[in-house]
Amino acid sequence: ALLDGGAKPLAGRTAVVTSGPTHEPIDPVRYIANRSSGRQGHAIAAALARLGADVTLVSGPVTIPDPKGVKVIHVEQAAEMLDAVLARLPADIAVMVAAVADWRVATLNTEKIKKQPGEGPPPLMLTENPDILKTVGHSDKRPTVVVGFAAETQDVESNGRVKLQKKGADLIVANDVSPETGIMGGTRNSVKLITAEGIEAWPDLSKEDVADRLAGWIATRLT
Ligand code: CTP
Ligand code: CA
């Protein structure tokens, strides 16, 4: 309501948020990962909590602190992230922000791979990781509001629309992560909201402001 600073429109609602990268081990000392600071996902978890939601944040390895007012589950790999997310269902809200590694090595090396002089680098066989957002979006315990992100370096809108459809999401928050935008690892974000109804471009905002607006969008969608 107007001027109601204490409004908790998400009181009684549960939310699960993923954030950060995943690390997929190659051997005991090496891993495959995406670039992600976790700033946007962590800010969204905190924003949902401020609106009264009971929030579980499933975070990959990040260097930023756990957000306030949120239950945090720390994981490393995509498979662990999926298990932790599914364990939180049913939930009212899912916001999948993590930059999940699309692949992991097919057979884990339990010993450190050593350089073999004369043999060249070792071939790495990869296998696809589970798609957490897609699994949640098509789950029989599907949350009422399912939100995904789309990190693109080109064709942001069309790629975002395809992801909305494929993943069974209500909203894709698409952003251009081309290096020249400075979004990856930065503190600001410039996003487009893609829904079945159309596309809405938000101005350049801090990641906290994107989080607050998104939490508001979700609250409106639920009431
Ligand atoms: N996502 C996920 N699990 C994966 C891959 C992606 O949950 N294994 C989620 C991300 O958290 C994000 C959305 O799916 O919310 C889109 O991620 P993105 O990497 O942009 O899309 P992909 O489907 O992986 O396609 P591609 O990387 O080929 O563009
Ligand atoms: Ca991907």
From TrEMBL:
<comment type="similarity">
    <text>In the N-terminal section; belongs to the HFCD (homo-oligomeric flavin containing Cys decarboxylase) superfamily.</text>
</comment>
<keyword id="KW-0511">Multifunctional enzyme</keyword>
<feature type="binding site">
    <location>
        <begin position="130"/>
        <end position="133"/>
    </location>
    <ligand>
        <name>CTP</name>
    </ligand>
</feature>
<comment type="function">
    <text>Catalyzes two sequential steps in the biosynthesis of coenzyme A. In the first step cysteine is conjugated to 4'-phosphopantothenate to form 4-phosphopantothenoylcysteine. In the second step the latter compound is decarboxylated to form 4'-phosphopantotheine.</text>
</comment>
<keyword id="KW-0285">Flavoprotein</keyword>
<feature type="region of interest" description="Phosphopantothenate--cysteine ligase">
    <location>
        <begin position="15"/>
        <end position="223"/>
    </location>
</feature>
<dbReference type="GO" id="GO:0004632">
    <property type="term" value="F:phosphopantothenate--cysteine ligase activity"/>
</dbReference>
<protein>
    <recommendedName>
        <fullName>Coenzyme A biosynthesis bifunctional protein CoaBC</fullName>
        <ecNumber>4.1.1.36</ecNumber>
        <ecNumber>6.3.2.5</ecNumber>
    </recommendedName>
</protein>
<keyword id="KW-0210">Decarboxylase</keyword>
<comment type="pathway">
    <text>Cofactor biosynthesis; coenzyme A biosynthesis; CoA from (R)-pantothenate: step 3/5.</text>
</comment>
<feature type="binding site">
    <location>
        <position position="102"/>
    </location>
    <ligand>
        <name>CTP</name>
    </ligand>
</feature>
<keyword id="KW-0460">Magnesium</keyword>
<keyword id="KW-0479">Metal-binding</keyword>
<feature type="domain" description="DNA/pantothenate metabolism flavoprotein C-terminal">
    <location>
        <begin position="10"/>
        <end position="220"/>
    </location>
</feature>
<feature type="binding site">
    <location>
        <position position="149"/>
    </location>
    <ligand>
        <name>CTP</name>
    </ligand>
</feature>
<feature type="binding site">
    <location>
        <position position="163"/>
    </location>
    <ligand>
        <name>CTP</name>
    </ligand>
</feature>
<comment type="similarity">
    <text>In the C-terminal section; belongs to the PPC synthetase family.</text>
</comment>
<comment type="function">
    <text>Catalyzes two steps in the biosynthesis of coenzyme A. In the first step cysteine is conjugated to 4'-phosphopantothenate to form 4-phosphopantothenoylcysteine, in the latter compound is decarboxylated to form 4'-phosphopantotheine.</text>
</comment>
<comment type="pathway">
    <text>Cofactor biosynthesis; coenzyme A biosynthesis; CoA from (R)-pantothenate: step 2/5.</text>
</comment>
<keyword id="KW-0436">Ligase</keyword>
<keyword id="KW-0288">FMN</keyword>
<feature type="binding site">
    <location>
        <position position="112"/>
    </location>
    <ligand>
        <name>CTP</name>
    </ligand>
</feature>
<feature type="binding site">
    <location>
        <position position="167"/>
    </location>
    <ligand>
        <name>CTP</name>
    </ligand>
</feature>
<dbReference type="GO" id="GO:0004633">
    <property type="term" value="F:phosphopantothenoylcysteine decarboxylase activity"/>
</dbReference>
<keyword id="KW-0456">Lyase</keyword>
